[in-house]
Specification:
Blueprint lengths: L20 E13 L2 E12 L4 E7 L4 H15 L5 E4 L6 E3 L6 E2 L1 H10 L2 E4 L16 H7 L8 H13 L10
Parallel strand pairs: 1-4, 4-7
Antiparallel strand pairs: 1-2, 2-3, 5-6
């Protein structure tokens, strides 16, 4: 049996080894805080293979907050992978996409300080990010259900405990 069409590679081929890739992504949510729906942006970084995650929520997310988030998460891990796979966000990307993406000089300098490189995935590629396109799936199916939050600080405390707790608490699902 043949598979129709050729699979498209990501913008670069990164060695498929533990500790080489991490993925950063954001996703908007409407979360009940004190019984009131509140718009927040979830920011998540995921280290491939070791399944380490760091999750934090913001009322808005910009380049400064992205740098703060990356500093906090990488300091928490005590480790930085060589490559950080990102979507084509304008927070880190100046122009272009995928292999033709040009990273904002401020963010390129930030990466150099931490010893990693941003890699923008190619648009429309199903295998585009660190081998885990559904990085927020466990957040949506395992973190949010059954939890109540009294404030943004409380939400982030729950997120920190959940992401750094026993790994069985956040299975990736099917």
């Amino acid at each position: 049996m043949e598979v129709k069409g050729k699979s498209k590679p990501r913008s670069i081929q990164v060695p498929d080894q533990p500790g080489i890739e991490m993925q950063h992504d954001t996703s908007p949510y409407q979360v009940k805080i004190n019984d009131e729906l509140t718009p927040v942006v979830g920011s998540l970084i995921y280290l491939r293979y070791c399944k380490m995650r760091y999750l934090k929520f913001y009322r808005c997310f910009n380049r400064f907050k992205m740098k703060c988030f990356l500093h906090e998460s990488l300091s928490s891990f005590g480790f930085t992978a060589c490559y950080c796979i990102i979507d084509n966000t304008s927070l880190a990307r100046l122009r272009g996409s995928g292999a033709n993406a040009v990273i904002v000089p401020e963010m390129r300098q930030f990466c150099e300080q931490y010893g990693f490189e941003f890699i923008c995935h190619e648009i429309g590629h199903a295998n585009r990010k660190a081998g885990n396109e559904r990085s927020f799936y466990p957040v949506e199916t395992n973190f949010f259900p059954g939890r109540r939050f009294s404030s943004l600080q409380d939400l982030n405390q729950h997120a920190l405990e959940w992401a750094s707790g026993p790994r069985s608490e956040w299975r990736n699902g099917p």
